[in-house]
Specification:
Helix content: 10-25%
CATH class of the largest domain: Mainly Beta
Number of helices: 3
Strand content: over 45%
């Protein structure tokens, strides 16, 4: 469950990498940015978002969400574009400062529905906790929902709770994108297996690409639903 935090100045500092999510309008999308400075009135001055190397012209009044990784959790807040500020020869995006931050524990990632084809590989460690580098079996699967922490998929493969698996997410994240994890739940459903997988990440930066896809998918679903 999300928790409201008041320590904005301690958690949100210059050079913090952020994801700026715009859910409506011609420039709906998810953009990487960074906190460059703070204006005299406390407003946030962030690097101009871009798409394909071209600056995205977000107009004043555009509502957005900012997400960033803190020392122990992911944080988010609602904001709005206030305008642009020129510093030397560079324009910065001016964003409204929030009253509070919302902290989400790493296990509480937002989940989106998908219908993406992939594959699951099964590993059979020779001793508890050991991860082998070569899978003993693999099967096609359909990923039916996804979050920054894991996924739920449908497959004919037989797995056990706690088993080490890998899921090929090349269709959504690009060629060769395979994430490892463990099975946390398996249910027999209409002749197939519905498997919930919790992903392993060595560091949070590895999770960011997946989170960006989830944000993108969230925007797509909102546009479809109107």
């Amino acid at each position: 469950m999300a928790e409201l935090i008041n320590d904005f100045d301690k958690l949100f500092t210059v050079n913090t990498k952020i994801t700026l999510i715009v859910t409506n309008g011609d420039y709906a999308g998810s953009y990487d940015s960074r906190v460059e400075d703070f204006d005299r009135d406390g407003s946030i001055l962030a690097a101009m978002p871009s798409s394909g190397g071209i600056p995205v012209p977000l107009i004043p009044g555009t509502k957005a969400e900012v997400s960033f990784m803190g020392p122990d959790s992911r944080y988010r807040f609602e904001t709005a574009v206030l305008g642009r500020v020129k510093t030397g020869s560079i324009y910065l995006l001016k964003l409204r400062r929030p009253e509070q931050l919302e902290r989400n524990q790493l296990r509480d990632f937002f989940r989106v529905s998908t219908r993406i084809k992939g594959s699951i590989a099964l590993f059979h460690p020779s001793s508890p906790g050991e991860k082998t580098s070569v899978p003993y079996d693999s099967a096609e699967c359909t990923i039916v929902d996804l979050s920054g922490g894991g996924c739920r998929l449908i497959t004919e493969a037989e797995t056990a709770k706690g088993q080490h698996v890998s899921v090929d997410l090349s269709e959504m994240l690009g060629k060769g994108q395979v994430l490892h994890g463990k099975v946390i739940r398996t249910v027999r459903l209409e002749g197939k297996n519905q498997i919930s997988v919790e992903f392993y990440f060595k560091k949070e930066s590895e999770r960011n690409q997946l989170i960006k896809y989830v944000f993108k998918r969230q925007i797509e679903l909102k546009q479809i639903r109107g």
